[in-house]
Amino acid sequence: MKKLLLASAAIALGATGAYADDVKMGVLLGFTGPLESLAPPMAQGAEMAIKEVSDSGKLLGGDTVTAVRGDSTCVDAAAATAAGETLVTTDKVAGIMGAMCSGATTAVLQNVAMPNGVVMISPSATSPALSTLEDDGLFFRTAPSDARQGEVMADEILEKGIKNVAVTYTNNDYGKGLADSFEKAYKAKGGTVTISAAHEDGKGDYSAEVASLASAGGDALVIAGYIDQGGSGILRGALDTGAFEKFVFPDGMVSQTLEDNFGSEINGSFGQLPDSAGDGMKTYLGMAEKAGFDGSSAYSGGAYDAAALMLLAMQAADSTDPKVYKDKVMEVANGPGEKIYPGELGKALDLIKEGKPVDYEGATAVNLIGNGEAAGTFREITIKDDKIETVKYR
Amino acid sequence: MELINALVAVTNYVIIPATAYGAQLALGALGVTLIYSILRFSNFAHGDTMAFGTGVVILITWGFQAMGISFGPLPTALLALPFGIAVTAALMLGTDKVVYQYYRKVRAAPVVMVMVSVGVMFVMNALTRFLIGVDQINFDDGTRFVINARQWRDMTGLHEPLTLRSTQVITVVTAIITVAALFWFLGKTRTGKSMRAFSDNEDLALLSGIDPNKVVAVTWIITGALATIAGTLYGLDKSFKAFTYFQLLLPIFASAIVGGIGNPVGAIAGGFVISFSEVGLTYAWKKVATYLVPSWEPDGLVQLLSTDYKYAVSFTILILVLIFKPTGLFKGKIV
What is the pLDDT of residue B45? Predict the structure, then answer.
């Protein structure tokens, strides 16, 4: 029945324009696994961009676009590869919006995208390793690398005149990657890291970890962990023993829980998280609300941007062939040209057709650097009067 | 001055935490040792009994808080403790009736009993999570500090901070009271004496008219009480999480065996041996070393083992004792 419907839909579409095609785009996200709660708002974001372009009828010769979902899981590289393979060989997608986690993304890129020459734009893979990976110019991401957060954090700490810090990180790829990139940046800029020690999540007692951090000393403690996990235990222990008075919180620690549980004890501490301000995000949130999902969920805006970017690049290259349009992605993302915000994709398609340049800003103020990854804006926060306050964006 | 700073650092990061942790381990090891000497098997479910008992105490604490009952500067959980003990003891007796009684009747070998207790452990673990969830819970609502870092610095002018949390004091005081009560019970009361007789020689005890059912029941009740107290103290001092008590099982068994399993005094001594080894061996002595030898600037952290290996310390001690002195520090018995 479904096939029949699809077939009749295809016939109906075929009747509207002689050259109109149906372009398929893969939406490859971790619908199952440890980040499954984040996947649906991301998929809905991407599908909103796809629908916007499709409904405008302005893509190439009036092509329509259909989203095909695939489950990349988060931790299972084999499952991610199989899902990517299905999208490329069976569904014949023109590009993949995904994958979600860094490990799955690497697997799909190397095993599927590169051998088949398909473009991937990930909204949420943040591992620094993806910056230097050989990708044949096929891989982009609208999420900033954690290496960038390390640098931003190093700048922030040095600007406050703090020259030596202790670092503790949660013992996984995220924590280790962030701690390493921070240490590198901080040392290069003249700071000293007294100790960089891992902590395991889910333990009851962190007094031994805190004791060794305290012994190494430092003017502040950087906690690259999770607030709902070991990060809380370390912070509690450090406060209770008086080991540290100033703390630096990366994205995993900045949340309402931090304010609720520790607010009055950590005044003067600070941190940062990837977040964008501005009209693009505001517009996007409004559109998401109208469409009935939560656009403020992490990386949802990035997913909209990833899908939009890919479709605009197709328009700019006048082709849905990944080998051709992959060279246009950076051009569309960085301009120069008229700035394009969410909801203006139809206008952007027109401009491109007229041969005018565009600069896609989207929900997350897209600006791709280096090997095709978001420069990323970070929101610097400080704890003042027991509350998390935004200092500025950088 | 440097010497005092060094002493303060050691006290703050080693002696105080290790003492509190040692007291918690000692209470846990006492429960294990009692079951071992009287019922003659290693009770693997003890860690999760602690978790269950603590979970019940937390629920009752919430109830008290909702009713507006508080215990002044002390945590409300201490008021809830007797009720928690009652519920846990009831569960222990129920488990014995449903599970262990049968295996005693068929005179199952100790190793079979151990396996049975592993099964009970899984059930109890699930029960606890079902009851209270898997999230981290802080239920300490009393005054947090006896001395905090700022007060200490203002008071002494020393560079090194020293903090003493009220939960650490409560832990040690409660442990002393509990242990004193237990020893009085085992040494002076008729039931206590019959328990010891039962432990020493079961057949002789039965011949002299001791009711085995009563001994078993009292043992379970005491074990439930010890587990609930130990679990609640650990939860107050650190934080409650259903799963962390399972991880405590290894240090608890190490404590009981190092001290000499079956021997209550040994369980207490073992608790402190394990806790001081764990904390002391994984502590980074750099700061203390720089205070003591000012001319020496160590490159590393002067840390024998990374803190990741904390549990490995108790495991190593456990193996060494089993190889070289299987009866432990204070002559225990090996079935």
Answer: 96
Is A79:A110 a contact under the CB 8 Å cutoff? no
| B165, B238, B283 member nearest A215 (Cβ) | B283
pTM of structure: 0.75
Q: Start-end ranges of CATH 3.40.50.2300 in chain A?
A: 21-145+277-374, 147-275+378-393
- Burial class of residue B217, CB neighbours in 10 A (0-12, 13-18, 19+): middle
Domain A21-145+277-374 = CATH 3.40.50.2300:
yes
- Say which of A205, A211, A233 has its CB closest to residue B284: A211
- According to CATH, what is the number of the domain B2-324? 1.10.3470
DSSP at B81 = H
A95-98 and A22-29 as β-strands: parallel, antiparallel, unpaired? parallel
Lowest mean pLDDT among A246-255, B76-85, B299-308: B299-308
For residue A33, pLDDT over 80 is answered with no
CA geometry: angle at A28 spanning A75 and A41, to 5°?
Answer: 95
Peptide bond preceding A99 in cis form (omega within 30 of 0): yes
Q: Are A204 and B239 within 8 A, CB to CB?
A: yes
Distance from CA of B238 to the nearest CA of A (A): 6
Q: What is the pLDDT of residue A154?
A: 94
Interface A-B: count of C-beta contacts within 8 A: 93
* Residues 172-231, chain A, touching B (beta carbon < 8 A): 195, 197-200, 202-205, 207-212, 214-217, 228
Query: Residue B17: is the preceding peptide bond cis (ω within 30°)?
Result: no
Task: Give B287-298 pLDDT, tens digit per residue.
Answer: 888 888 888 777
By the 8 A CB rule, do A176 and A198 touch?
yes
Q: Which fold has domain A147-275+378-393?
A: Rossmann fold (3.40.50)
- Least confidently predicted of A12-16, A339-343, B195-199, B210-214: A12-16
Reduced to 3 states, what is the DSSP secondary structure of residue B284?
strand
Q: Has residue A294 got a pLDDT over 90?
A: no
Q: Select the residue from A170, A212, A234, A257 to test the B interface by mutation, using most B Cβ atoms within 10 A.
A: A212
Terminal-residue alpha carbon distance, chain A: 52
Adjacent-strand bridge partners of A140? A121
Bridge pairing between strands A164-170 and A220-224: parallel
Residues 6+ apart with CB under 8 A from A161: none
Residue in A272, A306, A274, A304 with CA at minimum distance from that of residue A287:
A304
Q: Give the pLDDT score at A3.
A: 59
Q: Which two tokens stand for residue A304?
A: 């909209």
Alpha carbon of A216: minimum distance to chain B alpha carbons (Å): 7
Report A:231-260 residues touching B (Cβ under 8 A). Answer: 232-233, 236, 240-243
Beta bridge pairs of residue A224: A169
pLDDT-based confidence at residue A13 (cuts at 50, 70, 90)? very low
List the structure tokens of B21.
Answer: 């942790």
The pLDDT mean for chain A works out to 87
pLDDT tens-digit map of A101-119: 888 999 999 999 999 999 9
Specify the pLDDT at position A19: 57
Asked whether residue A15 carries a pLDDT value surpassing 50, the answer given is no
Once rounded to an integer, what is the mean pLDDT over residues A7-32? 68
DSSP bridge partners of A373: A141, A369
Please state the rounded mean pLDDT for residues A251-271: 85
